[in-house]
Amino acid sequence: MFIDIPIVLWGNLMATSISSVTQRGTSEPFELQVARGQIALHEPLFKYGYNPLIINVEETIWDVGGTYSFIATAAPLVVTSASGATDAGVTGVVQGLDSNYNEISEAFTLNGSGTYTTELSFYRAHRAYITGASAPAGNINFTIGATTYARITAGENQTLMAVYTVPAGKTLYVGANTATHGTDTSGAFITVRFKVRNEGSVFRTATKIDMIGGEILFPYQFPLKVPEKSDIQFTAICNKNQNNAIAATIDGVLIKEGGSLE
Predict the structure, then answer these.
(1) How is the chain split into domains, by residue range?
(2) What are 239-258's pLDDT values in tens digits?
(3) What mean pLDDT value characterizes the chain?
(4) Are 101 and 89 spatial neighbours (Cβ–Cβ below 8 Å)?
(5) CB 50 within 8 A of CB 60
(6) What is the torsional sign of CA 203, 205, 210, 213?
(7) How confident is the model at residue 13 (pLDDT cuts 50, 70, 90)?
(8) Does domain 42-67+163-256 have CATH number 2.60.120.1330?
(9) What is the DSSP track for 79-147?
(10) pLDDT recorded at residue 260
(11) pLDDT tens per residue across span 28-79
(12) Strand order of the sheet with strand 214-226?
């Protein structure tokens, strides 16, 4: 059995509690245990990126398009809706890292002009999403100066960026990646690269594939180890000057180093 439900009677009241079978000496899939928070120091990571318009210039697979620029100096993010005052009151959360690569998160509410400036300074911004009942009418950009570091595209209510930085004190083990080519015309093929940059180094290609339409799953029999403070991203380029829609996923587990599993 996968669920154990002990029943306790208090007078006329009936109370139930649900516990994992792992607490009863049996087993369930390890991945499910991690997702349920039952494995100490482990947490799942899933990143999904999408770029609707890649041609014969290499771009990062993310909502904004072009090559992703990583923040050089930690600073507050300016959150701005392209629909301005129409999106006043929209709420959400932005997640990332501070200058020490520690995880940070801040909730935001767009003001009467459809903007918000974070109180925290972000050195990385790798995820944002809408939390309230009101969806934004326009794209919501997260910027420092003139550069956009994240975007919630209207209708998605979440960033779609195959970009991430491993927090301090943790190691990412990538179990599998996927890439999807949504356009296939005139024999055009897409070259997709999964790239890793360790702290203080340059990006290197960890995986490189060519594809024509469809989806490719590339699991790692032995998970790919990515150390703390490393940047990762997916990029793609077409061999012809034509429009392509590209998606990519990063699937792994973050493990806190130096701890005990007790």
Answers:
(1) 42-67+163-256, 75-152
(2) 999 889 999 999 999 999 87
(3) 90
(4) no
(5) no
(6) negative
(7) very low
(8) yes
(9) EEETTGGGGTT-EEEEEEE-TTS-EEEEEEE--TTSEEEEEEEESEEEEEEE-SSPPPSS-EEEEETTE
(10) 55
(11) 898 999 999 989 999 999 999 999 999 999 999 999 999 999 999 999 999 9
(12) 42-54, 244-256, 170-181, 214-226
- As a whole number of angstroms, the distance between CA 239 and CA 188 comes to 6
Q: Which residue has the tokens 């701005």?
A: 80
The string of DSSP letters for 136-189 reads: PSS-EEEEETTEEEEEE-TTT-B--B-EEEPPTTEEEEEEEEEEEE----TT--
Length of the chain: 262
**What CA–CA distance (Å, rounded) separates 76 from 72?**
12
Residue 25's pLDDT is: 57
207-210-214-220 Cα dihedral, nearest 10 degrees: -20
DSSP H or E stretch at residue 226: strand 214-226
